Every structure is written in C-alpha cells, then in structure tokens.
Amino acid sequence: MRILHVSDCYLPRLGGIEVQVADLVQAQGEAGYEVEVVTATPGEPIAGVHRVVAPMPFDLPVHPRGVVHMLRLMTARRPDVVHVHTGAVSPFAWMGVRAAVRAGVPVVVTVHSMWDPVTRVLYRGLDSVFGWSRWPVAATAVSRAAARPVRAVAGPRVPVDVVSNGLDLSSWRPRPGEVLPVRGDEVHIVAVGRLAPRKQPVRLLKLLHEARQRVPRSIPMRATLVGDGPARGAMERFSRSHGMDGWVSLPGRYTREQIRSLLMSADVFVAPAPRESFGIAALEARAAGVPVVARAQSGVADFVRPGKEGLLGRSFHELVVAVARLTRDRDLRESIAGNNRATEPTRCAWPNVLAGFEQSYKLATGQA
Questions:
Q1: Rounded CA gap, 69 and 67, in Å?
Q2: Domain Glycosyl transferase family spans what residues (predicted)?
Q3: For the chain, where are the E strands, in sequence order?
C-alpha cells in the first residue's frame, strides 16, 4: 500500500505531532508500506519527504497555494490513501484534505488535539462554508477524550474511530542487566512537556507547591520538570518567589535517552493539563513503571486507571491531593509501579496502532 502523510509540521521541528508522525512513518515503512510525507515545514532534504514551503510571517507552516501543489503531487505519486494529521488549527493539513478529495484519493484525517469550544465554533463555521463534513473522508482521534468533540462537530456523516498514538513499549522498560537507581526516602516527581502557556506549566508549579504543604517535612521531595518553551521565564520567576529553587529543577529539553534515564529514577509522573489529547510523555512514564497523576477528562485516562496505573483527578484540587497522597504513601507507589512494570498498554503498541489505521484506510477506500 502506498501512503502519503500530510502534516503542517514535521522534522526537523520537534513536537508531539511531529515526532508521532515520524515514528508512524518509520513503523509503516518497517511493516512494508510505501510511505511518503508532504509538509510545509522547511528543512534539509529527507528521502520521501516533500517540502511545500513558502516564506511566511513567523515561519508559519502553511503555503498559500498548498492545494494546487499537493493536488499535483497526488496526481503524480498516485497514493492508495492520503493520511492527514491535524492539530487544533492546521490550514496546510486541511488543504491536503481538499486536494485528496479533488483527486479522488481515499483520505483519513487524524485529529491529534482537543477541540476546545472556540475550535469547535471555527470548524462549524468552516463546515458551513466548505461542507467538509459531507466530504468522503474517514477520521480518527488519538483518544476517546479527543474523539468526543470531533464527533459532536462532524455529526453522523463522518465516522470517527479512536486509534491510539504508538510507542515502542520495550524501549522504555528496564533492559536486561540494567542497574536501577536505589530508592531512598526522597520522592522524585517528574513532568515532561513543552513549556507553553496552553500546557499550564506555571499551574504545575502551583500544584507542586500546594502538594508540598500537605506532605510532612520529614519526607524529602524533589521535582524535575523537563522541557522548554515561552513559559519558562514565568516558571523561573514563580519558583524563585515561592522558594522552590532548592527542590525543583528546570533542566530544559532532554533527548529520549535522557528522559528514559530520568524515568528510571522517578517515583511519580505528573501530567496536569486538562486538554491533553493523549499524553505521550505520560505513556512513556507508565511504560517505564512510574505511577502517573493526570486529569480524568484528558486522553491519559485511556491508559491510566485510578489506583491501577496511577491516580486521576477532575480538578486542580484533586490533582494536588493525588500528588500528596502518592508522596506520603510508599506502599501505594510501589503497588502501582509494580503493576505498570508487569503490564503493558498493548493498544498503544505499534502492531495494534498499524492495524487500527489499516481498518481506517479500508473504511476511507469505501467512502471514496
């Protein structure tokens, strides 16, 4: 099968969608598919990657004549299916949908983000103009939480399945003969993600600050918050003003191998964003055996059950209580960690993810 992936952003940019699409392309290639990518992200030439780039303000990944360029590419390459990846607002990706519909090529749209109320209004407006919900497309979302608002907007005409993000689970497990850090009395709390305002990283510091007040001083705590982004300055100011510099560190961006090593020493992983569509970093922590604290209404709830793989909260207060509880209760931490090390979220393993998309491709072919 020949697959053409369309994504606004792609390597060398590093973000959730970019890395996940690159991993999907690699997994499909290893499974025997013929895979290519078209993107509006500039960068060095990569085999199989077509860059449709125009000089835009702020380096926005979009092209004013993207439909024409992609229609020409689809006509020349003749893919069996076009797989489009969208975030909350992805103009180049939706140009890819229009080009595929015009070319008569089956098209699958994967929604990687949570559509908030403003985004839902936007897509309803676009539907009234372009009638996209009547196009012959199939859709997937990365979690049940992400699928709900898409179904509410698209209505019954567009089938929306849930196909999880993929992860090589074995790479996050302890390796044979690997010496793990010795657990002491100190509780190490970890979070990984882009320090962007929509992820509410300053609120994460507030959460840790309030949790520290609920934990006896006899229990030492430290936190490592990995990532970089525009909210870093605000986080540093909050940390200084609240006396957290002594136990909270902001080391910046880590490589995957550095994150893996960090998770080997972690006791608790925190993913507090309420609009987390999936939570690939939380999945990595869960695969590494770390108890996860996250929002019950986020995509993390697809692979974290309360008391089994971690603790879930529906509010900021409940997240504070969950972090404090895990910090105080060593037996609970070890019970959840043991369960995470002994079980695997198999629906997130690449063979199951590829099988899910294969079904979506067949559905899209029937739609076309």
A1: 6
A2: 182-341
A3: 2-7, 34-39, 49-51, 81-86, 107-111, 137-141, 160-162, 187-192, 221-226, 248-252, 268-271, 292-295, 310-313
Cα(299)–Cα(142) distance, integer angstroms: 8
pLDDT score of 200 = 87
**pTM to 2 decimal places:** 0.92
**Domain 2-166+349-367 shares a fold with domain 169-345:** yes
User: What's the CATH superfamily of 169-345?
Assistant: Glycogen Phosphorylase B; (3.40.50.2000)
**Domains of the chain, residue spans:** 2-166+349-367, 169-345
Q: Map tokens 């309360």 to a residue.
A: 306
Domain 2-166+349-367 has CATH 3.30.43.10: no
Q: Give bridge partners of residue 34 from the DSSP assignment.
A: 2
On the CB side of 111, how many CA atoms lie within 13 Å of its CA? 33
Is the model's pLDDT at 318 over the cut of 80? yes
